């Protein structure tokens, strides 16, 4: 995990011995559980450190998590980026939402083993969670590394953010056509694209774009639409 520390220090995160130990345990649990369920196709330690851990934390170059903020990780899967962010920034409150309960069983074990506080796991599709008043417009940040175009991701994530907050999409690259299509959906959902940051993970050629969507006004109650509908353009 010293490789992880050498990378994260380049964008301002100095991990303690305790935090490095937590990442080590997280990696071991990920590999062990991955033998019996599909959590990740990336299993080599170096690759997990670069493509999951460091990639998840790279967002901190552009967003301040050194404070008590409420974050929801939508479609968290094996816990990325939510768990790495929680390890590195223990003061944040984070909700991990996923549609597969077996993934959440894994995450609950990780949370318990690492003794992480103020972490909630929620078994729900984004479309259903976004209509639940317990979660709707309750968060300072919504983050997602889910593989979907920006318009779809925005319909899943923008409803969770309170006005003034941000949805931040992890994209492999911010394609102009996708950004144009996404802008219309984002505007209808009550947001606007404020910034797009293009970067690489230090010591690698791995590209990453962060699309910052600021919530300007409340999302109309007809969004998100029922499951499956987000793949159709917002009218």
Explain how this protein is built.
- This protein has 235 residues and is an alpha/beta fold.
- The chain is 36% helix and 22% strand.
- The chain is built from 8 helices and 7 strands; from the N terminus they run αααβαβαβαβαβαββ.
- It has a 7-stranded mixed sheet with strand order 3-2-1-4-5-7-6, with helices on both faces.
- α3 packs across α4 and α7 packs parallel to α8.
- The longest helix has 18 residues.
- The model has no long low-confidence stretch (mean pLDDT 94).
> How many separate helices?
8
Number of strands: 7
What percentage of amino acids are in beta strands? 15-25%
Mean pLDDT: 94
Give Rg in angstroms. Answer: 17 Å
Strand order of the largest sheet: 3-2-1-4-5-7-6
Classify the helix fraction into a percent range. 25-40%
Element-by-element helix/strand order: HHHEHEHEHEHEHEE
Weakly predicted, low-confidence segments: none
Please tell me what the overall shape is. Answer: globular
Biggest sheet overview: 7 strands, mixed
- Structure classification: alpha/beta
Q: Give the termini distance in whole angstroms.
A: 48 Å
Present the secondary structure layout.
Blueprint: H1 2-8, H2 17-34, H3 45-57, E1 70-74, H4 82-88, E2 93-98, H5 101-114, E3 119-123, H6 126-129, E4 139-144, H7 150-157, E5 161-171, H8 176-188, E6 191-200, E7 207-215
Parallel strand pairs: 1-2, 1-4, 2-3, 4-5
Antiparallel strand pairs: 5-7, 6-7
Helix pairs in contact: 1-3, 2-5, 3-4, 7-8
